[in-house]
Amino acid sequence: MTSELTSATAIARDVAAGSRTAVSVAEEYLARISERDGEIHAFNTVMADDALAQATAVDEAVAAGHDVGPLAGVPIALKDNMCTRGVRTTCSSKMLENWVPPYDAAAVEKLRSAGAVAVGKTNLDEFAMGSSTENSAFGPTLNPLDPTRVPGGSSGGSAAAVAAGFSAVSLGSDTGGSIRQPAALCGLVGVKPTYGAVSRYGLIAFASSLDQIGPFAHDVADAAAVFDVIAGHDGRDSTSIPEQLPSMSDAVAASIADGIDGLRVGLVTELSGRGLDAFEPEVVAAGAAAADALAAAGAKVDEVSIPTAVAGLSAYYMIAPAEASSNLARYDGVRYGLREPGPNTASMMAASRTAGFGDEVKRRIMLGTYALSAGYYDAFYGKAQRIRTLMIQEFDRVYADFDVLISPTSPCVAFEFGAKADPLTMYYNDVCTIPSNLTGHPAMSIPFGLGAHSMPVGVQLMAPAMGEADMFRAAVALEAAAPQTGREPGASS
Amino acid sequence: MTATQRSTEEDLLPDGWEMVIGLEVHAELATRTKMFSPAANEFGGEPNTNIHPVCLGLPGTLPVVNRKAVELSIRIGLALDCTVGRCVWARKNYFYPDMPKDYQISQYDLPLNSDGQLELPSGAVIGIERAHMEEDTGKSTHVGESGRIHDAGYSLVDYNRAGVPLIEIVSRPEITGPEQAKEYVEELRSILVAVGASDGKMEEGSLRVDANVSVRPTGAEELRTRCEIKNVNSLRSLGRAIIFEARRHVQLYENGEAPRQETRHWDEEGGRTRAGRSKEEAEDYRYFADPDLVPIDPSQEWIDEIRAALPALPKDRRDALTGHGADPAAAATAVNRGLDGLALSAIENGADAERVLTHIAHNLAVDGADNLDAGNFAELVKMETSNALTSTQAKQVLAEMVETGNDPAAIATAHGFEAMDTGELEALVDSLIADHSDEWQRFVAAGQADDQKERKKMQGFFTGQIMKATKGQADGAAVNKLLSTKAGQAS
C-alpha cells in the first residue's frame, strides 16, 4: 500500500483542499529527479520550468476557489512518444531527437485540464519497439529497484519514474505489453485499457491497431484515478469508442466496500507458464497463488484453456511490424526530423533512415515490409489477421463464462542488461501480454510478491472489451491479498 | 456512337486493328475541408498555407473521414448507376516527397462505388468498374535546368493539395477511340459538375485523366498488354496521346514485337509518349487496410436520401431541350454551359428553340446569365423572330438586358430600334445599286460565273454600304436575300 506522501489521490485531495501546494509537491519530485535521474535515466527531457508553471497555475486556481480537477498538483511523467506542445518528443530515436510538436496529445490535454503537472518525457525503446528500454538511442533506463537490471519496456522510463519517486504516476503506451511488463518488473500497477478507450491522437504510432495509452501507478486506486481522466471519446481518433466507460474509481470503491463475491475468474492454462522452461518457477507460483487469493476473497475460480492464445506471439510479430513499416515511412528526412544529405531524393531518404533508425526498428521495418509484399501477404500478414480473428472469437466465447482471466504478466522478473540480446528471446517476454493487444481487450498488471533475486513479480488480469470495472474490482482484491515485500514505496527510504 | 464518328475513328489505325481504351479520371471533390484533415480545400493559395498537422502527417496525428466527401462520392456513384456499399480504407505504400506520410489513403479491395455505367450523348454505354475515394498528394517543383526531377538542383514541395479529397473513376476497357474518350470525359465532367461534386476544371488540375491504351485485331475479344498514359492535361492532348500510343502498339506488333506493360508520360511538345524511368523492380504498393480508420458502411436510408436529392443529370437535361425540338448538339452546349434551365424556360415561354440556343451558345456569358429573366429572354427572341428586331439589334439588346436587367421592349425603344419594313429597305438597296453600278455589274457577273470569292466580296461591299446608311439597323439576312433576288432578276 502507498504512503500518503506518494499517493496521487492523496496529493490531489490535499492540493485541492489547500493543505499542500502544487508547487511544493512539484519541487519535491523535481528535487528527487535532479538527485537521482543522472543514474537512472528515466527521462529524456525534464520539464522543470513547465512543471512549476503548471503547479503555480493550479495553486492560483485553488486560491481563487476554482474547480481544479481530479489530479490537481499530481506530478506525472509522460512517455516520450506522446506529443507535447513546445516540448521535444523524440520516441528515443535519433530520427526525432530535436522534433518539437506543435500540439498536445489528447491524453496530455486531458491530464492538463485535470490539474496534473507534467514533470518530464520518459525514455523508451526506440519507437516503443522492445521489452527492456535497451533499444533507446539515448542509452538505457536503469531499474530503480536494482540498477544492474532493466526496468522492462518499452515504457521503461515511465515505470522507472514512478518506481524512483520522480513522479506520482505516469503514462505509458502498450502495443504488446509495453505498460504491463515494465509495471511487473518495477513492482507497479500498469493498465492497458480496452482498445479505443483512450484516444490515440498525439501518440506517435508504432502499430496502430494495437497501441493503447494507459497509466502506471503505485496502487490500483491511483491507476483508476488516472484512467478516469484519460478515457473518453475523441472525435480526432476514428477508432475511439463512442460509449462512455463507468468510473474506475467508483469500481475500486465498490470493490473495497463489497468485495468480489461471485466474480468469475479463469486461470488461463496456456499462459500460466506451467511446464515451460522460459518461465521462472516463482512467476508460475505467483500466478497460481494470485488465483488462490481471489478464490479466498470470494471469487469463483476455474482453470480455462484458450489454445489460440499461444499463437498470439507469432501473429503479433507479423501484424505489428507490418503496421510499423507503414507508420514509420514518413520519417524520410523531407519535412522534419533527421536529414542526411544525398545526391538525389531517394538517396537522401535512404541515408536519413539508415542514420536515424536503430537496429531493432530497422529489423521490424524489414520484417513488416516483407510480410506485406505481393506474393507473401496471404502467407504472412493475411494469415496473422486470420489468427487474430480466431483469437478474438475464442476469447469472446471464454468471456461468456468468465468475468476476468488471470495469468503471470511476464515469464521472468527484471533481468540484467544484455541478458536477452537475441531478439527472439526478447520477443518471448511478451507471450502473456500480447493476446490482449490482438483482441483489443483490457488487461493490467498488479504486483504480487517477489521472485528471483528478490525482484517483484506481476500478475496479469484480463477482461472482455469495456470490462475494466470487473478487472479493477479483482485488482483491488489482489492488491489487498498480495504478500508484503518490503518494497512498498516509502518503506525503503 | 454515330456512324460518321465510328468511321473516323476506324481510319486512325491501319486496317485490321482497333483500339481498346480504359480511362481513370481523378476528380477533386468540392468540399470545404480536406479528406481527413480540417485544413481548407482551396486552389491557388500561397504554398503551404492550407495545411494542418493531420494533412502534413505529423507524428501522432490521425485521419478522420470528411462526411461531405463521402456524400459527394455517393452522389457520383448514384449518377453513374453504381452499387454503393461498404468500403474499406487501404494504405498504398510508396515513398515520394510530396506525399506526407509516404503512403496514400485509398480504397482497394472494397471501393465505395462499383459496377456502374455511363451513357454518352452519342448513345454508347461505357461500363464503370469502380469509383473510389482517396487523398491527393502535394506538388513538387524541381528547381534546376530542365525542371525534371533527375537533374534538379533542389525541389520545393507545396502541401496545400496534400489530402484534398479525390474520387477516382475507373472505366472498363470499352472505349473505342480518341473521340469517344473525349466524349466520355466531357460527359463525366458534366455529371460531376451537375451533382455539385467537383468543379471539373482540367486546367486547374481538379480533373485529371490517365488513359490505359492497347490495341487488338478488329473484332477480337482479347485484351492485350496496355500502357498507362499519364500527364495528359487537356482533352486535345488526350486524343493525341491515345492515337500516338495505339499506333506505337500496332507498329510493335507488326514488327513482330510487343509493348511492355508500363506507365508512359505524354510529351505535349514532342507529340509522343515516353517511358518513365525504367524500374528495375515492379511497383509493390503493399496495400493493407488502414488501421487508423474504420470501414464506411453507408445506410440504405442515407443512400436513399442522397438519391432523392440528386439534381437532374445532363442526359435528362439534354432530353428536356431536344424534347422541344432543339438540336442535340445545341442542347448539349447549353447543358455544358449550365444555361439549359434558362433556355428551357424561355422555350416554354414560347420562344423559338433554335434562336434561344443560338443566343445561349454565342451571345451569353455564363456569369451574366444569372441576371437574365427567362420571360424577358423569351420576349426578346419573339421580337427577333417576328422581325421586330434584326439579329444584330437583338444581340445588342440582350447584352444590355444582362447588364441592366431591363426588359427588351424598353431597351429597343430607348435605342430607337425598329426593324425597317421591307419596302423601305428595298428602296435603299435600289438607290445604292444605282449609285454603284460598276460594283453591281461585278456582283451580277460573279454570280453568273459562279465565282464565289468575287461574289462574296461584292456582297460584302453592298451590305457594308447598307449597314452604314442604316447605322447597323438593317437585317443582314434580309439584305442578302434582296441582293440575290435582284441579281437573279438582272441576269
Q: What does this entry look like structurally?
A:
The complex is a heterodimer of chains A (493) and B (491). Chain A is built from 16 helices and eleven strands. With 493 residues, chain A is α/β, with parallel strands linked by helices. Chain A has a domain at 8-258: Amidase signature (AS) enzymes. Chain B has three domains: 3-306, no CATH class; 314-415, no CATH class; 422-490, Arc Repressor Mutant, subunit A. In chain B, the strands form three sheets. A nine-stranded mixed beta sheet of chain B has the order 2-5-6-9-1-10-11-12-13, covered by helices on one side. In chain B, strand 12 (262-267) and strand 13 (272-275) form a beta hairpin. The longest helix of chain B has 20 residues, at 235-254. The A-B interface holds A 81-83, 89, 91, 96, 99, 101-103, 105, 200-205, 207-209, 235-239, 322-323, 325-326, 329-330, 332, 334-336, 344-346, 349, 369, 372-374, 377, 381 and B 53, 56-65, 91, 93, 95, 97, 100-103, 149-150, 155, 157, 282, 284, 286-288, 291-294.
Envelope shape of chain A: globular
| Beta-strand content estimate of chain A | 5-15%
**Protein chain pair with the most extensive contact, residues per chain:** A-B, 45 and 32 residues
Order of strands across the main sheet of chain B: 2-5-6-9-1-10-11-12-13
**Beta-strand proportion of chain B:** 15-25%
Spans of chain A of 5+ residues with little confidence (pLDDT < 50)?
none
CATH superfamily of the domain at 8-258 in chain A: Amidase signature (AS) domain
- Helical residue percent of chain B? 40-55%
Provide the residue-averaged pLDDT of chain B: 90
Q: Tell me the Rg of chain B in angstroms.
A: 29 Å
| C-alpha end-to-end distance of chain A | 15 Å
